[in-house]
Every structure is written in C-alpha cells, then in structure tokens.
Structure to design on (230 residues):
C-alpha cells in the first residue's frame, strides 16, 4: 500500500518438552525394532556354518544370508513358528529345525522328497531305482555306506550333507517334517577361517575374539567366497 512494506512476524513454535523428545525417539526406535524383527522373522536372516558337514559347498565360518520368505515365519526369540506356502525342491540346500531335542538348526541338502523310494548302495544314492547325479559331493562314494531301501513318508524329507563321511543327517536320525523347514541360503556375505568351536551356539566370547582378529589378520577372511550365491 503506497510503497509501504508490511512485515509479518511469525510466532516461534514452542520448544518441545523433554518428555515429548524422549517419546518421539522411543517411538522411532520402536518402529526400527519392529521392522528388524519382521524382516528376520519372515524375510531374511543371518546364519553361520559351524561344522564341515556341507564341505565343499559350505565351509566352517561361512556367514550366510538365508531366505525365509514363503517358507517359515516366526516370532523372534520364541518357539512360535508358522509354516508358509513354499516347498523346497530336490538337491536344494535347506535350513531346518533339527528333529532332535536340544539341537540347533541344521543345514543340509534335500535328497529325498515325499513318496520317493530311496536307497544308498556303496555310497551311491538311488531315487526310485535311478542313480542320483551329485556333482557337489566332497569325496567319491564310500563303498561302506549303505542304507535302505526306504520310502520317504508324506509330508517329510530326507536330508544329507555334501561331506557324506562327516555328516550327521537323515541316515542316522530319520526324516525331517515339512513343518521344520526354515529357509534356504541366498549368499555368503562373509567367510572367516577360524575353528568350528568359535561358531557353536553359546561361544559368544570366542566369536567376538575372532571378529576382532580379522582387524589384525585380514588374511583369515576368505575374500573369494564373499558374495558367493546359491
């Protein structure tokens, strides 16, 4: 108006109280934690290989990302699981809850599907009377390894390690129920050449020491295995 300038004075927003700041931060972290629990419980999860039962495919100290999507959903830190719609296929590497009390999850290769007639003769696997081609095996067939014939029950699977002479698998403790399937590996995101005891459940101190050792001795990392996919 007639060259006059109007100046608007904006009222300053009131400074949030300490209680509101704490509540806002707590809610932000709550969403982060819930998202993490949802992802690890239903989509992807990290695992470490503690034994040589799957050599040469998987080595002791391989750190895996495991795909759970469609296989299994769980409430983290509980025993609550829900089996989902996806089914593993023959010769796929599978993570599953061991059908043995007090044992951690196992990782093996699925050899026998429901309804298969399975037999092992002198270390060679036969499915429905046909020899199974197994290029992933760590060693030639052991002529002392004989099993069956058996028929895999409905809703169950027969699992074996690739390192047959050093694998505690379905030959010893039987079949794996479909409800025990957890997921399948996606890739190796880290691989550390360290004793198997370091990766056993409960050995937290040994595991931390091993991770710290990587800083001083990076040569214990198997760099060429990182980002190996399955």
């Amino acid at each position: 108006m007639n060259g006059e300038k109007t100046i608007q004075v904006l009222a300053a927003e009131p400074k949030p109280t300490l209680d509101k700041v704490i509540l806002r931060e707590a809610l932000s972290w709550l969403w982060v934690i819930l998202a993490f629990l949802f992802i690890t419980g239903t989509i992807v999860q990290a695992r470490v290989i503690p034994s040589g039962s799957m050599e040469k495919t998987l080595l002791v100290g391989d750190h895996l990302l495991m795909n759970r999507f469609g296989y299994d959903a769980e409430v983290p830190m509980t025993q609550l699981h829900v089996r989902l719609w996806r089914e593993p296929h023959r010769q796929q590497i599978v993570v599953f809850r061991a059908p043995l009390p007090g044992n951690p999850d196992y990782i093996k290769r699925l050899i026998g599907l429901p309804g298969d007639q399975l037999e092992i003769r002198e270390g060679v696997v036969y499915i429905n009377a046909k020899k199974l081609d197994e290029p992933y095996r760590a060693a030639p067939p052991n002529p002392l390894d004989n099993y069956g014939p058996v028929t895999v029950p409905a809703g169950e699977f027969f699992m074996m390690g690739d390192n047959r002479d050093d694998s505690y698998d379905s030959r010893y403790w039987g079949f794996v129920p479909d409800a025990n399937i957890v997921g399948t590996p996606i890739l190796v995101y880290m691989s550390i050449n360290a004793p198997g005891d370091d990766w056993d459940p409960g050995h937290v101190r040994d595991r931390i020491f091993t991770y710290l050792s990587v800083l001083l001795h990076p040569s214990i990392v198997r760099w060429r295995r990182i980002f190996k996919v399955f």
Q: What stands out?
A: The chain is about 20% helix and 30% strand. The two ends are 74 Å apart (CA to CA). Residues 18-42 form the longest helix (25 residues).
